[in-house]
Amino acid sequence: MLKRTRKREFSRSSAARDAAPVLLILHQELSTPGRVGHHFLSRGYTLDIRRPALGDQLPETLEKHTGVVVFGGPMSANDETEFIRRETDWLAVPLREKKPFLGICLGAQMLARHLGARVATHPEGMAEIGYYPIRATPEAREVTPEWPDHVYQWHREGFSLPHGADLLAEGDLFEVQAFRYGPAAYGIQFHPEVTHAMMCRWTTRGHDRMIATPGARQRADHFHDRPVYDPSVRTWLAAFLEKWVTPPAAHLPQAAE
Known about the structure:
Radius of gyration: 18 Å
Structural class: alpha/beta
Number of helices: 8
Distance between the termini: 61 Å
Number of strands: 13
Number of domains: 1
Shape: globular
Helix content: 25-40%
CATH class: Alpha Beta
CATH architecture: 3-Layer(aba) Sandwich
């Protein structure tokens, strides 16, 4: 039986003392929110971290939260485990309330599946593990003008574009790399949150997977590519998260007086 953990909240600075906390959903006991967490802490937000896989409950409403980020994990959005089904169904809450939502890798796959899209492995068994190119669409430039041309990946499954969603970035092995649904929900297949320490852990624990999986970059390639591509990823993430927490109404034209 999985050990139940209590939700954790981190202190915030006076910069956002009046802002509601950001809900962060993680899927393993030792997982961390990486750069996403660092960004919000540096802006003064409280982080409300919950792990449904370990028994944490999700709120019935996000009235008391700024938004929610659902991170990745080794699970599949197609798994029939109780917490995967419950968490996928729960995504109706941020969608209904039009709260800022960001799904990263597994989180994006859950969002896609919730919206009726297909989540599946590559037809030739390929995976993306390491840095791979992506291409931003014109719609993506409306969100943030500059997007990275290579991003860090760690996945074997991808998803089709949900009906009614805007494609923001596409790739070669897995076509849909980022999308927007409605005014405030985003799904990205890649991992901009990964710090150097996280990359060290992932490539150590996943060493055998990198060797055995078609399409995967080898460990040395990850560290060779990081100084080349990571600066633009880091810059994009900061710009994107700043836009993400801004209520959609703030972007609407002002009525004439």
